[in-house]
Amino acid sequence: MQNFLTKKPTDTILGCVMTAETWRFLCLQNSELTFDSKSYGTNDLEKVLGIFQQITDFYKK
Predict the structure, then answer these.
(1) Other C-beta atoms lying within 10 Å of the C-beta of residue 11
(2) How far apart are CA 57 and CA 60, in angstroms?
(3) Cα distance between residue 50 and residue 53, in whole Å
(4) Distance between CA atoms of 46 and 61, rounded to whole angstroms?
(5) Torsion angle, CA of 2/4/58/8, rounded to 10 degrees?
(6) Beta-carbon count within 10 A of 31 CB
(7) Are the C-beta atoms of 13 and 1 separated by less than 8 Å?
(8) What mean pLDDT comes out for the span 14-37?
(9) 3-class SS letters over 7-61
(10) How far is the C-alpha of 31 from the C-alpha of 20, rounded, in Å?
(11) What mean pLDDT is predicted for residues 12-41?
(12) pTM for this one?
């Protein structure tokens, strides 16, 4: 796998799936997919934005 923007190889892909009201975060590392056990709702926006910031920071490395 490789980072789409930097074209550098990566073993980890972080992502999010969502409905209109809830977010779930996931990690694909090598060939293993892991979901965050918690769903985040619209009342968790501060937490959701924090997780998105962590994902962004991860890919800035």
Answers:
(1) 9
(2) 5
(3) 5
(4) 23
(5) 40
(6) 7
(7) yes
(8) 93
(9) CCECCEEEEEEECCCEEEEEEEECCEEEECCCCEEHHHHHHHHHHHHHHHHHHHC
(10) 28
(11) 93
(12) 0.78
**pLDDT > 90? residue 43:** yes
Task: Locate 53 and state its tokens.
Answer: 């910031």
What is the distance between the alpha carbons of residues 8 and 58, in angstroms, rounded to a whole number?
13
Residues 6-13: what's their mean pLDDT? 80
Q: In this structure, what are the phi and psi dihedrals at residue 38, rounded to the nearest 5 degrees? A: -105, 140
pLDDT of 58 reads: 87
Structure tokens at 25: 């975060």
Position 36 pLDDT exceeds 90: yes
